[in-house]
Write a structure and sequence with these properties.
The chain is α/β, with parallel strands linked by helices. It has a domain of 85 residues: 2-Layer Sandwich (Nucleotidyltransferase, domain 5). It contains 4 helices and 7 strands; from the N terminus they run H-H-E-E-E-E-H-E-H-E-E. It has a 5-stranded mixed sheet with strand order 4-3-2-5-6, covered by helices on one side. Strands 1-7 form a two-stranded parallel sheet. Strand 3 and strand 4 form a beta hairpin. Helix 3 crosses helix 4. It is elongated and about 100 Å long.
């Protein structure tokens, strides 16, 4: 008695279903997108002043740059000092625990830096740092 095996039928049954793995990958992708904190770059190069007490800080949130020419930059947009508060309020609506990193040029006006710091303090933002570089 001869027995015939159907090898084509066995090959079709042994395929791997990739759908559950793709579902898991997409769920992980969504999780990482939702939990990622985006850093808002100022958009201009700043020559930061040196400080012997400089410490590395985890820069999360928004970065405000003050140039030597007296320009204020936030999210790669130049702002007038009167527009700093409304711009920060919009950012704070999206992220209530907003942190601010101020990057002031070493030749920038101290008065302008104090104005920006005063606006941030009046808004009640507690996580504020001024960027410096280590003394070499």
């Amino acid at each position: 008695m001869a027995v015939r095996l159907n090898l084509d039928a066995q090959e079709d049954e042994s395929s791997i279903d990739m759908t559950p793995m793709l579902d898991i990958v997409f769920i992980m992708l969504i999780f990482f997108i939702v939990t990622t904190t985006f850093v808002r770059d100022a958009g201009v190069e700043i020559n930061r002043p040196q400080a012997q007490s400089a410490e590395p800080v985890d820069a999360q949130g928004a970065r405000i740059a003050i140039t030597a020419e007296g320009e204020i930059w936030l999210d790669k947009q130049q702002l007038d000092v009167r527009m700093v508060r409304p711009a920060l309020e919009r950012l704070r609506a999206d992220e209530p625990s907003l942190g601010i990193l101020i990057q002031a040029d070493e030749d920038a006006s101290t008065g302008l830096l104090i104005e920006v710091l005063d606006i941030i303090n009046l808004m009640g933002i507690e996580q504020v740092a001024v960027a410096t570089r280590e003394d070499s």
